[in-house]
Amino acid sequence: MSSAGSVLDPKTSPAFPIAARVTLEDTQLRKNVRHATEVIQNKRARVVGEMPDWQQLRESGSQIRQHTMANLDYYLEEFERNCTKAGGQVHWARDGEEAKRIVTSLVKASGSSEVIKIKSMTTEEIHLNLTLEAAQVHTYETDLAELIIQLGQDQPSHIVVPALHKNRQQIREIFQREMNLPELGEKPQDLADAARSFLREKFLRVKTAVSGANFLIAESGGVCIVESEGNGRMCLTLPETLITIAGIDKVLPRFQDLEVMLQLVPRSATGERMNPYNSIWTGIHPGDGPRNFHVVLMDNARSEVLADQEGRQTLNCIRCGACQNACPVYRQTGGHAYGSVYAGPIGAILTPQLQQLHHAQTLPYASSLCGACYEVCPVKINIPEVLIHLRNKVVKQKGALTAEALAMKTAGAIFRSERRFRAAQRLGRFAETPLVRRDGSGEGWIGWLPGLLGGWTQVRDLREMPKETFREWWEKRGNHGR
Amino acid sequence: MAAEIGKVLNSSAARSEVLRRIRAANGGTAEGSQARQQWGEIQRDYRRSADLSRDQILDLLEDRLHDYDATVVRSKEAGIAATVAKLLAERERRKIVIPDGMNPAWLPEGFSFVVDTGLSSTELDTFEGVMTASTCAIALTGSILLQNVLGQGRRAISLIPDYHLCLVRVEDVFETVPEAFAHIDPSLTLPTTFFAGPSATADIEMTRIKGVHGPRFLDILLVE
Known about the structure:
The complex is a heterodimer of chains A (482) and B (224). The N and C termini of chain A lie far apart (66 Å). In chain A, the strands form three sheets. A six-stranded parallel sheet of chain A has the order 1-10-7-4-2-3, with helices on both faces. Among the domains of chain A are: 57-303, Rossmann fold (3-Layer(aba) Sandwich); 417-480, no CATH class. With 482 residues, chain A is α/β, with parallel strands linked by helices. Chain A has helices spanning 16-24, 27-49, 54-70, 72-85, 96-109, 121-125, 128-134, 144-151, 168-178, 188-205, 231-237, 258-269, 302-306, 322-326, 330-333, 344-354, 372-376, 383-398, 403-416, 418-432, 454-457, 470-480, and strands at 89-93, 114-117, 138-141, 208-211, 215-217, 222-227, 241-247, 251-252, 277-282, 292-298, 436-438, 444-446, 462-463. In chain A, 49% of the residues lie in helices and 12% in strands. With 224 residues, chain B is an alpha/beta fold. Helices cover 31% and strands 22% of the residues of chain B. Chain B has helices at 2-9, 12-26, 32-40, 54-67, 80-91, 121-124, 177-184, and strands spanning 71-75, 95-98, 112-115, 129-132, 136-138, 143-147, 163-169, 173-174, 192-195, 200-201, 209-210, 217-223. In chain B, the strands form three sheets. Chain B has a six-stranded parallel sheet, sandwiched between helices. A four-stranded mixed sheet of chain B has the order 8-5-6-9. In chain B, a hairpin with a 4-residue loop joins strand 5 (136-138) and strand 6 (143-147). The radius of gyration of chain B is 22 Å and the shape is globular. The interface between A and B is large, with 106 and 80 residues.
């Protein structure tokens, strides 16, 4: 896999069409991705279908998130106040670099040279592990999929099941090598058991944990994390110091709002009626859990997304990954082609916006605009609408002097005038002549077009232009009568 | 080093800047009373009360828990100790940690029940199981809620041992998620854990595997 060992950073990753060409040739990867996304989609459809009030939940979820974003400063301050009152310490970070400096200092201050980590897309977004390793802090990923990624020196390819591009044989090879277990079987149960014994000693020993957050609750200053394996509970409960890093978009106004989110997330994300474990804690509780608790609230360009009236709905995302499983593009290319830890439809709108569109300019085009993502989104983010909005911005950003912009301008001028349009049709019929090849039944086909137009003929033939347009035929018919 | 930490950890400049950016994006500072009023206007047309009868709700919970591979037995209050003895014997578990506040009448003879008095994680790892009561349960999702109160204890005890025997009173079983949230809303700042079955993962080829880090074996005793 081309991305193995390197970091999924939009600043350095190749453009989507180039990266996708590589992943499309990896038939094993495509098979694994197809299998996993099909299984989740079917499970999701079943458990969503049994909820008579699913659309009402989606509507409430959407309204809660919109309301939160409209009052984000108020709810963040309320969260900070309540979390602090409950014994937590709240830190603010303008960007990823600042967040990493804060976390590194907190880990150092905790006196530990190791941390256990709960799967967190926010820490993946800023590549926290690299920074901690550079500061001589060893990180242990404790989510099974993240462990597979870490031990395999790989990169996450999905928001919820980041190792879905690996099958059991590939996982066994990684575990055999990295855990020194040559006899390890390949049944999923064997692999899970290996992870259990590999990590248990770390859970009992390591004194500092780093987590993300699914939700911050402004009303109470509490934090909620949902998970399956119990690794999250271990990290939240056993260490002396817990450092939670959360995007500023993760806040919810009140505890009651969780009753909506905790119904939407599990069914959308993994097709389960409820996550095996949900943890909710508020600051420090003497005798139960860590003695030191820190929350790092990170902006990292989220406030810029908020400033864009059409793009801001992207921040409503609750990271369920349903759009990835539903996307016909993601299901072919897998996640790595997106060059960002946020892949699929949500990645195609989130990544460019977090990068001020300077990187990842091709991502808004990594979609057929079929709308499947919008349909499954539990908080009704209109992803196709944002994609088109971003395409518009990309075109503007590139300026009026690119070949594409000039071609579009010319086409516009031609379409505006009947005389020019007819002239262009005549010119086209004349100009295509050297490119047309006849098939066995005498039909003309074009297999190669020059320049920008070549994108079309790369993967399909174009039929030659008809000898006569409909208008010409109609006019001829009128002149000569029946 | 200490000076450096002090410098980095004073994030008041970052705080003002982040809040300034948000306010600029939203066209002003959000106002508390207005936010609260708008919150109250959020449409909530989803189900918030039970449709099923008491018996149907209990059957639904049992069905969901079976789905997750948990064992469910029912018992009257008076029969708890005998049922506990039977379950523990079948599981071949003798050394059981319990939280403070468990009713002694629930604990059968012939087993070693040890009250958690702040045992270390390593000590907890030597137990063969844990027995707790619960705050409430949600039938629709097969979830059981634990909070840090008498009879349920701190989070680590129901996490580290490999087997969990959990008592759920039938009157604490709700049909829907919102009913359970209304029930725990007054105690929302207590450490709270929802669990739905034994720990699990689907990270390998989306196959649900029972048992990773949390308890791999789960028995539920429904107290009628």
